[in-house]
Amino acid sequence: xxxxxxxxxxxxxxxxxxxxxxxxxxxxxxxxxxxxxxxxxxxxxxxxxxxxxxxxxxxxxxxxxxxxxxxxxxxxxxxxxxxxxxxxxxxxxxxxxxxxxxxxxxxxxxxxxxxxxxxxxxxxxxxxxxxxxxxxxxxxxxxxxxxxxxxxxxxxxxxxxxxxxxxxxxxxxxxxxxxxxxxxxxxxxxxxxxxxxxxxxxxxxxxxxxxxxxxxxxxxxxxxxxxxxxxxxxxxxxxxxxxxxxxxxxxxxxxxxxxxxxxxxxxxxxxxxxxxxxxxxxxxxxx
Amino acid sequence: xxxxxxxxxxxxxxxxxxxxxxxxxxxxxxxxxxxxxxxxxxxxxxxxxxxxxxxxxxxxxxxxxxxxxxxxxxxxxxxxxxxxxxxxxxxxxxxxxxxxxxxxxxxxxxxxxxxxxxxxxxxxxxxxxxxxxxxxxxxxxxxxxxxxxxxxxxxxxxxxxxxxxxxxxxxxxxxxxxxxxxxxxxxxxxxxxxxxxxxxxxxxxxxxxxxxxxxxxxxxxxxxxxxxxxxxxxxxxxxxxxxxxxxxxxxxxxxxxxxxxxxxxxxxxxxxxxxxxxxxxxxxxxxxxxxxxxxxxxxxxxxxxxxxxxxxxxxxxxxxxxxxxxxxxxxxxxxxxxxxxxxxxxxxxxxxxxxxxxxxxxxxxxxxxxxxxxxxxxxxxxxxxxxxxxxxxxxxxxxxxxxxxxxxxxxxxxxxxxxxxxxxxxxxxxxxxxxxxxxxxxxxxxxxxxxxxxxxxxxxxxxxxxxxxxxxxxxxxxxxxxxxxxxxxxxxxxxxxxxxxxxxxxxxxxxxxxxxxxxxxxxxxxxxxxxxxxxxxxxxxxxxxxxxxxxxxxxxxxxxxxxxxxxxxxxxxxxxxxxxxxxxxxxxxxxxxxxxxxxxxxxxxxxxxxxxxxxxxxxxxxxxxxxxxxxxxxxxxxxxxxxxxxxxxxxxxxxxxxxxxxxxxxxxxxxxxxxxxxxxxxxxxxxxxxxxxxxxxxxxxxxxxxxxxxxxxxxxxxxxxxxxxxxxxxxxxxxxxxxxxxxxxxxxxxxxxxxxxxxxxxxxxx
Amino acid sequence: xxxxxxxxxxxxxxxxxxxxxxxxxxxxxxxxxxxxxxxxxxxxxxxxxxxxxxxxxxxxxxxxxxxxxxxxxxxxxxxxxxxxxxxxxxxxxxxxxxxxxxxxxxxxxxxxxxxxxxxxxxxxxxxxxxxxxxxxxxxxxxxxxxxxxxxxxxxxxxxxx
Lengths: 287, 766, 161
Known about the structure:
- The structure holds 3 protein chains of 3 kinds.
- In chain A, helix 5 runs antiparallel to helix 8 and helix 9 packs antiparallel against helix 10.
- In chain A, helix 2 links the parallel strand 2 (27-30) and strand 3 (49-52).
- Chain A folds into 3 domains: 7-52, Uridine Diphospho-n-acetylenolpyruvylglucosamine Reductase, domain 2, CATH 3.30.43; 59-172, 2-Layer Sandwich (Uridine Diphospho-n-acetylenolpyruvylglucosamine Reductase, domain 3), CATH 3.30.465; 180-285, CO dehydrogenase flavoprotein, C-terminal domain (Enolase-like, domain 1, 2-Layer Sandwich).
- Chain A is α+β, with helices and mostly antiparallel strands.
- In chain A, the strands form 4 sheets. In chain A, strands 4-5-10-6-7 form a 5-stranded antiparallel sheet. A 4-stranded antiparallel sheet of chain A has the order 11-12-13-14, with helices on both faces. In chain A, strands 1-3-2 form a 3-stranded parallel sheet, with helices on one face.
- Chain A has 11 helices and 14 strands.
- By secondary structure, chain B is an alpha+beta fold.
- Chain B has 3 domains: 27-131 and 189-237 and 244-277, Alpha-Beta Complex (Aldehyde Oxidoreductase, domain 3); 284-390 and 403-457 and 613-765, Aldehyde oxidase/xanthine dehydrogenase, molybdopterin binding domain (Aldehyde Oxidoreductase, domain 4); 458-610, Aldehyde oxidase/xanthine dehydrogenase, molybdopterin binding domain (Aldehyde Oxidoreductase, domain 4, 2-Layer Sandwich), CATH 3.30.365.
- Chain B is 28% helix and 24% strand.
- In chain B, strand 13 and strand 14 (298-308) form a beta hairpin.
- In chain B, helix 9 (359-377) packs parallel to helix 18 (729-740) and helix 13 runs parallel beside helix 14.
- Chain B is globular, with a radius of gyration of 27 Å.
- Chain C is of the alpha+beta class.
- Chain C folds into 2 domains: 3-78, Ubiquitin-like (UB roll) (Roll), CATH 3.10.20.30; 89-156, [2Fe-2S]-binding domain (DNA polymerase, domain 1), CATH 1.10.150.
- Chain C is 32% helix and 17% strand.
- Chain C has helices spanning 25-32, 89-96, 106-119, 125-131, 143-156, and strands spanning 3-10, 13-20, 51-54, 57-60, 73-75.
- Chain C has a 5-stranded mixed sheet with strand order 2-1-5-3-4, with helices on both faces.
- In chain C, strand 3 and strand 4 form a beta hairpin.
- In chain C, helix 2 (89-96) packs across helix 5 (143-156).
- The model of chain C has no long low-confidence stretch (mean pLDDT 97).
- Chain C: Residues 4-80 form the 2Fe-2S ferredoxin-type domain.
């Protein structure tokens, strides 16, 4: 389990990195390495070039905008985000999810951008971004572009980042006052990729009822799945038990991934169970 | 106070804590090259051709071999067994003609660098023609080769009037039970580093474990060398658990390469290889029936089972199936018994022993049966066990059965007493009431138990050589091995107690064929019993020799002397004249007057301990679980292991063995399984797929070590402690989960998966 | 094969080495720096045996390239004990509490817990459990490791063990 041979590049600026990606054939950007390095060691990927982003200072850091929203650099370490009081303020869902991302040792190195671009169907951070309607910034030879996170996944483990592009950061809107949140996942063993994960946000309106609901599932589809129907059913309710039950009923039509280890029915069942629990928690937290 | 029985600190720890250990991968020799194995990617296929030439073209590659290059090396043999006819099913060191499991070695590369060797291995062209894969040992056997099928033998054992018992039974309870495929999976993968010392004409193999002397003899035989010209060395071993230290194809390949290529050859298994190449274990299906009388007493047991050996027979032969047949009955009196063990090959990684082999399986089967008998007879689960226990007054209790070639004679034990102690410590009655309250409130909680008899101290013989040098330091050379469990400390304690020295003055030399001519290694919970007894005898003999010598030096009668902290002195005047053991040793140096009276000079003795029977420790596992009715997750809320080890040399080490053994049992009960798809592709090939318990999965664990039944079979009364923590975890957790589900007997398979629990809950509600 | 000359700062000592760029930090520590205390248990980032401290933060050395570690301060298990006579309080507590058997996972446990105790001198048992939840041990059943850590924390706070 030794990585295959490759050429190594460690640019110090974004422009340099993009130029390298434009010039080199079969190159892979290396972020925190917590997904790419195992894949290299197992030779699941065999790039000719590895472009290391760890020396590009401009790609990491957390900034709070005047409206309270966050700008998070793609190379910001997961553990730095997890422990940042400003993130806890603006996006408590992300902090709750981060505690379940791998382990301390992997979060010390792992980056938010790396997780988003790896886009494991059950990964926590893409699910959070889907739930909070994050906007991602992608840089390429022609400059930067922004797309809503909903357009970021192109398919199974495939982000909308071209071979000569890089994810450089994301914009996370600030949680409105009184928002209730919950992030739950089920894995057979602590710290593993979830079989199913669920993220829920409930924004109260002036009348105390749900003005906006966000319900996202991981591990069910090839990428995070927003349950628009459930969200619509929750809007305008006080998240009473029967409102939750109606929202849960929408999971019956899910057609989850199936693999040799986890049958589809089990994922669908878990989606309903976890969603019910998450809605209960978020309801308690909504003020 | 004697150091025997004290929880003293380990002698092994300092280098391990400082990162100064000598694990297999830590061993390097000048000019060494690296080996990489090319493995089969199909479960069953005709091996059409292997072309290594593209690999040879890569710079840094020194050699590449396929089966034709190693044709003169016979397949890897197995250790002595009473079962005949197994030889044709042994594994060649490189696949010949057919591949029979994913991971089977097909070719090897030797290169200057490990990564380059891996690059080259990727270039080897292996042409395979896929054949149907056989993945179910309970299915009809198919062809192993042109003349043999995939059932090498049927293990049969029986006694008593079985048919009559079933005819006359009040009830017959029949179950179909299965144990999943899992294994030891030590944190250190295997490694083998071979070096040919041409100057001395000695072949050395480093990174070995467990069975150095047998492996040495077989390597010598297979490579056509004298055993005295082959030596095996053991450094640190990162966990053994049964799988590490067996003789595998890679061990022979590095030795052969070191001889042919005349350079040291290093092979370090990677984790993905480990999960498909190192011995699997456990997978067995039992169709078991019990004839029971109206009081819930067992009249007979009929045990038909299918043992999934995987693709080849390895060094254990049919031992696990043999033990599954011979040791199934545990603590119970069973008037008639018949075992029919279908020992079958499939297209999976070969299997052999893993901590509590045959007993983890057997306890699950037997204790599920006891629960079912209780349910059928309307008896309490505890009571049905009490009624069937072999009573303490019946000890020693001879069963008309054999296992591992020795008659099963339970040497000592008070099973009912331990059960009472364990129930009291666990607070069973209070928990029964608490569980009832919680169930009434809608929770799914349950209690479970498993009672078992372990085995340990497999003979026939073990010897040690114990020497005091001129400084008073003690060296104990043993043919035992250490796989990280604290062998050095335990043997040092026994030696120190018998001789009368500080245990920290005892250096234990183990796992080396160049220091002692014979040895049996470390397995089957045998070291403390066998090597420990030999050490005890040696220590006493050495003390006698020291006193005899000191008597001459001090002009004092021998029987007036004692040895305390390395000093021989008078019992009645401890402050009076004395000699140190170092001085005694000097008085026995070659050429001295006193030494000439003896066959060999020096303060040294060799002692052998022989035993024809095993010692049988016994235990009780108690579990409380709660089921998550939404996810099906089983949460173990509390667990107790009660274990009688006869006498504990070091209670801290015994508890450590039990706690670690429990964690492994928990893995087999709830998490770990080697799974395959329908074509025999392994699905559990990383640590993300093969789920070993982390600390997050560990429940509160209480350990009750008792010493109620010392073994009469050895001078120190000990029984092995290594496997009791593992033995009944599957049994007790299955019992508790089933209880939480309402006691319907739905739990018939391990590991218990959350989705199965959901299914059971749904069935129960329907 | 692409190689680079790099300098690694390990346990306060400089190592000028030339490594293939594909070589992991763990392999470089073991093969090029001669520090074999960092063990490889899985090489895919799950078992935690290879955990080292990178600028004081725990990281899997199998998931970093050696060339990435240039200019970073690396601490391995060999760097924990103050000298040949004394153990680090955590190492001593591991011995006192039988928190190791085969010792293979121990270096990764120790480095992980050194980081925890630097960050949180008075952890609860629950916090210790979370900290080592990414470290597999196949021998101990883990509980003695928690006890050892709590004992070491007390010693490091200056309280009698």
